[in-house]
Design goal:
This protein is mostly helical. The chain has 21 helices and 2 strands. It has a two-stranded antiparallel ribbon with strand order 1-2. The longest helix is centred in the middle third of the chain and has 32 residues.
């Protein structure tokens, strides 16, 4: 027996194939956000502190050659002298650097979801993370070369990571039984856990080794994860060399005919675009993620400008909301699957109940932030509670595409994430525009009012339009040649033999 076979046998005896998939998916989404949010904490130390009023001729990214020239800064963190280049970027330029990620991100959401349906989510998810890790490793070099080069690298990073989120839905469609999908989708919220760990770790690394170290660490870990993913994860239970016959039979019997063995060769766009259940997911996700991206990208800046935390405090307190979000994501998902399995609530009622809780609660808390946000303790508490409640989206709308159309769940989530990607850039632009000439708490109050309106509106849309019922267009008849008419249409994943 070879060493590879021995390792495979050890993994199989220790964990089931689904457990390995779940674990690597959780770690993958942790890294997904680590690769994304490392800049949000690093940029606090990458830039030279500027006066409250900035010159108007440096407010545009087109004027970057004069304003982004680096200077050598000798800074001391905990008694350690760090010699590192820092950059004279104004508030708008910093937010362009943060927001340009979404220029690339938006381009691969829908194509990534559809590509995963056609060639398999394992390949799309794995390659997106692999190339994103390599881009992260060269980010410090790009920043030292030129502001524009850094923007190009961040756009390319977004282009790679954009395909990862919709790609995991087709993986779940063929690997995870319907009554376990809420629990599996909670692994997507491990992104919050990744942010929670990344923030304080980055804060500490910056204080002792400089801002470039955070990109080297997260990029290297991403490469190690990619190696594990391609070694241990396979496209379907039928193609996995280490799966037991019992586990394969359990998966295929549970999934049955809801997911096709032969992936549908086309998308019934007319029926998809006319489905209220699809638009409920798209609109709700767009508004919900607009609020989340505003917090995830701007919380370190708010804590630095308004609450005046230093870099290590900033990283620590910025991480607290994400810890709570992951705890809620896991616990609410287990509860949702339990309620569905017992027949206490229908799938539709479950999705609407948890979506309402996950969105109305942070909306109300953002209103509280308007009045209490100047106090550091209240502010950290409110943000923590808001993201804690928001974690329940995994039991709500987040996996709803797998309920209504598992064969096209990647396409549906790709459409939803495309809209939310525009919201990600819009949120960065919004905060930059509101605070470029006035960094007072009054301007941040406007931001919090906007977030409250978005969260509550998202909940209302899903309550009115959402559904948990399998849609009739999930199994469209294949377009066949005359010679193929004797073949069965829509062969199910389950092997009836």
């Amino acid at each position: 027996m070879s060493n590879t076979e021995k390792r495979g046998l050890f993994v199989r005896n220790l964990l089931s194939c689904r457990q390995v998939l779940s674990l690597l998916t959780m770690l993958g989404f942790m890294l997904n956000y680590a690769l994304r949010v490392n800049l949000t904490i690093a940029i606090v130390d990458m830039t030279v502190p500027l006066p409250n009023k900035t010159a108007t001729n440096s407010s545009s990214p087109s004027n970057t050659n004069s304003s982004s020239s680096g200077i050598m800064s000798n800074t001391t963190h905990d008694g350690v002298e760090v010699y590192e280049e820092r950059f004279a970027w104004d508030t708008l330029q910093q937010n362009y650097v943060l927001g340009c990620f979404f220029w690339g991100y938006v381009l691969t959401e829908l194509p990534g979801g559809r590509l995963a349906e056609l060639i398999g989510g394992r390949r799309v998810f794995g390659h997106s993370m692999l190339w994103a890790s390599l881009l992260t490793l060269i980010t410090p070099l790009a920043a030292h070369i030129n502001y524009i080069v850094l923007i190009v690298v961040r756009v390319a990073l977004g282009f790679m990571l954009g395909a990862s989120w919709p790609a995991i839905h087709p993986v779940a469609a063929v690997w995870i039984p319907p009554m376990e999908r809420s629990k599996f989708m909670s692994n997507m919220m491990a992104s919050s856990l990744g942010a929670a760990i990344t923030m304080p770790v980055c804060g500490y690394l910056i204080s002792v080794a400089g801002w470039a170290s955070v990109f080297y660490l997260t990029g290297a870990i991403g490469l190690l994860w990619s190696l594990a993913w391609f070694s241990l994860v396979y496209e379907t239970p039928a193609t996995h060399p280490r799966i037991t016959s019992e586990e394969r039979r359990e998966i295929e019997d549970a999934i049955g005919t809801s997911t096709n063995k032969r992936r549908p060769s086309y998308v019934p766009w007319g029926q998809v675009l006319c489905s209220p259940a699809v638009w409920a997911i798209i609109i709700t996700h767009g508004l919900s993620v607009f609020g989340f991206f505003t917090v995830v990208n701007q919380l370190p800046t708010f804590m630095s400008q308004i609450l005046h935390f230093d870099i290590k405090e900033n990283g620590l307190f910025s991480s607290l909301p994400y810890l709570g979000k992951y705890v809620m994501a896991v616990s609410s998902s287990y509860l949702a699957d339990y309620l569905r399995q017992k027949g206490t609530l229908s799938t539709t009622a479950t999705r609407k109940l948890f979506t309402t809780f996950a969105l109305v609660t942070p909306g109300l808390l953002m209103i509280a932030q308007v009045f209490l946000g100047m106090d550091a303790i209240w502010s950290v508490t409110i943000f923590s509670l808001a993201l804690f409640a928001h974690g329940a989206v995994t039991a709500g709308y987040l996996g709803n595409g797998l309920d209504i159309a598992p064969n096209f769940s990647g396409t549906i989530f790709g459409m939803a994430n495309t809209l939310s990607s525009f919201g990600g850039f819009l949120s960065a632009w919004m905060v930059g525009a509101l605070t470029v000439n006035d960094k007072s708490f009054h301007q941040w109050q406007i931001v919090f009012w906007i977030l409250a309106a978005c969260y509550i509106s998202a909940a209302l849309v899903f309550v009115v339009l959402g559904s948990g019922e399998l849609q009739s267009w999930n199994n469209p008849p294949e377009r066949k040649k005359i010679s193929d008419v004797s073949h069965e249409e829509g062969v199910p994943l389950k092997n009836e033999k």
